[in-house]
TrEMBL record:
Belongs to the ATP-dependent AMP-binding enzyme family. Residues 26-408 form the AMP-dependent synthetase/ligase domain. It catalyses: 3-(methylsulfanyl)propanoate + ATP + CoA = 3-(methylsulfanyl)propanoyl-CoA + AMP + diphosphate. GO terms for biological process: fatty acid metabolic process. This is 3-methylmercaptopropionyl-CoA ligase. It comes from Bauldia litoralis. Residues 458-532 form the AMP-binding enzyme C-terminal domain. It comes from the Bacteria. Keywords: Fatty acid metabolism, Ligase, Lipid metabolism. Its EC number is 6.2.1.44.
Length: 549
């Protein structure tokens, strides 16, 4: 029923606009047009130029028939073209499908078919696998795409052109759109990002303009990012739309510093030369910097902030980053919540704690992002919140503005994920008395040994306390007596010399006897392109071969 505060007070163009992060691009071009927006090798663009290039790409895609609700796939490295696609495609009301550059041809074809892509922007570096994916796409699904080749100025390796269009020529041939603007409805899809598929088939996670806008703002608030920040692209942009940082940097009028390859020399060189002050990455990226030749860090004399996700920061990482003078923030999330949706907010009092306690406090998944409405731990069966005692396990759940629309063409999976009015993460955790959440395990990663539940993450936390261990993962190993026992896969830091017996002795200091790994294997741990450990592959190793003690 309308009241006095409704009558004659309707929405109109003067007082209401649908939220879309595309608006950030127009604002920075208008206000900061002469300021640096992009650095990539020898290339330099200011915000006026970056906006112009994005608007030309949008015009070219429109001429190809891309419109509201259409899909444009990208097979691109962290280059200017990838950022321009994140500005241009949503400006048409179309949906960007950023493909994981490490996928095989079959999966690429499956995803492009599933999201009904009509155009593909692809870097020459990936032409071999893309050519096969296009062949499969036509042979198995009867679908052909308009292919645009990106010939990046910083790539000098092999790779054929696959399409009739070349990116730079395409931009030159199309005048820019007059305005980059989002769709009339902020609930429109902005991206479809496929889950990593570490278990089962990957699902297409659909996110909205509203959610992307709000998470881009949340990034600023969470990290206290100032205007004109310089952001280094160590995080793959295909991962959850780069955690919404393409739009965050547009909001700030900051500078994107692009990197094709994540290598210590390139990262530290970019931080030094371009005064990059923020970057994101999985633990492997931070470990790479800690273990780098100290000479590579010479000349870095400014404050650098790193964001870490995918695993809790270990004592070695916290100490190592402190030695570098880098400030690390631990975040947690999933593709379904736009990347990071919770943060372990560091309180000033924590700095006075001993290192071991700082590690424990900073290793938690923390509290909800500023613009996420809800995050808690619940019993997934009763949907009752677990007590904040640090012990009672339940499932981490989210709800609010930075939660996905749902899974593309999968109503059953969407309804299951949202049952009870919350998004079910699948991560098992306990809520501590200060309401900071600590993950205990993925539901599928619990090891049941002799009827006792063992958290693989608890064992991994103990392993990471050993200074020689650079990476580790624990999975269940079949056991004739106990059913399952823990098996630890370990990667050692460069120059380290540690035996399995040493590792097990170390674990005895930190774990109950039944939780200690029964076997240790020193070998490379498989990871996704974003640094996430592929435990399903380790489980196969544990099942198919005898563990080496």
């Amino acid at each position: 029923m309308a009241g006095i505060f409704d009558e004659g007070l309707e929405r109109n163009p003067a007082n209401f606009a649908a939220l879309s992060p595309v608006s950030f691009v127009e604002r920075s071009a208008e206000i900061y047009g002469d300021l640096p927006a992009m650095i990539h090798g020898a290339r330099r663009y200011d915000w006026a130029t970056l906006r112009d290039r994005s608007a030309r790409l949008a015009a070219a895609l429109r001429a190809m028939g891309v419109e509201r609700g259409g899909t444009v796939s990208t097979m691109l490295a962290n280059t200017p073209e990838m950022i321009e696609a994140h500005y241009a495609v949503p400006a048409l009301g179309a949906v960007i499908n950023a493909l994981n550059t490490r996928l095989d041809a079959g999966l690429l074809a499956l995803q492009m078919n599933h999201c009904e892509a009509s155009v593909l922007l692809t870097d020459r570096e990936f032409s071999s696998v893309v050519a096969e994916a296009l062949r499969i796409l036509e042979a198995d699904y009867g679908r052909t795409l308009r292919v645009v080749d990106v010939c990046d100025s910083e790539y000098t390796g092999p790779g054929d052109r696959l399409g009739a269009d070349e990116y730079e020529a395409l931009l030159a041939a199309h005048p820019p759109l007059a305005v980059l603007e989002g769709p009339p409805d902020e609930w429109d899809a902005i991206a479809v990002s496929y889950t990593s598929g570490t278990t089962g088939a990957p699902k297409g996670v659909v996110t909205s303009h509203r959610g992307a806008y709000l998470n881009a703002v949340s990034n600023v608030v969470t990290w206290a990012m100032p205007n004109f920040s310089v952001y280094l692209w160590t995080l793959p942009m295909f991962h959850c739309s780069g955690w919404c940082f393409p739009w965050t940097m547009a909001l700030l009028g900051g500078t994107h510093v692009c990197l094709r390859k994540v290598e210590a020399a390139a990262i530290l060189g970019a931080i030094r030369d371009h005064k990059a002050d923020h970057y994101c990455g999985a633990p492997i990226v931070h470990t790479l910097l800690i273990n780098a030749d100290p000479a590579l860090r010479e000349g870095i004399d400014h404050r650098v902030k790193g964001m870490v996700a995918a695993a809790s920061p270990s004592a070695a990482m916290i100490e190592g980053m402190a030695r570098l003078g880098f400030d690390i923030t631990h975040v947690y999330g999933l593709t379904e919540v736009y990347g990071p949706a919770s943060v372990c907010v560091k309180r000033p009092s924590w700095e006075k704690e001993p290192l071991a306690e700082q590690v424990r406090l900073n290793g938690r998944q923390g509290v909800r992002y500023p613009l996420q409405e809800g995050m808690t731990v619940m019993d997934p069966d009763t949907m009752a919140e677990t007590p904040a005692d640090g012990e009672t396990m339940g499932e981490i759940m989210f709800r609010g503005n930075i939660t996905m629309k749902g899974y593309l063409k999968d109503r059953a999976a969407t309804e299951s994920a949202f049952r009870g009015g919350w998004f079910h993460s699948g991560d098992l955790a306990a809520m501590e008395p200060d309401r900071y959440v600590k993950i205990k395990d993925r539901s599928k990663d619990i090891i049941i040994s002799g009827g006792e539940n063992i958290s693989s993450i608890e064992i991994e936390d103990a392993l990471f306390r050993h200074p020689a261990i650079a990476a580790c993962a624990v999975v269940a190993m079949p056991d004739p007596k106990w059913g399952e026992t823990p098996l630890a896969f370990i990667e050692l830091a460069p120059g380290a010399d540690v035996t399995a017996e040493d590792v097990i002795a170390h674990c005895r200091k930190h774990l109950a006897g039944f939780k200690i790994p029964r076997a240790v294997r020193f070998e490379e741990i498989p990871k996704t392109a974003t640094g996430k450990i592929q435990k399903h592959l380790l489980r196969k190793r544990a099942q198919s071969t005898a563990a080496i003690g």
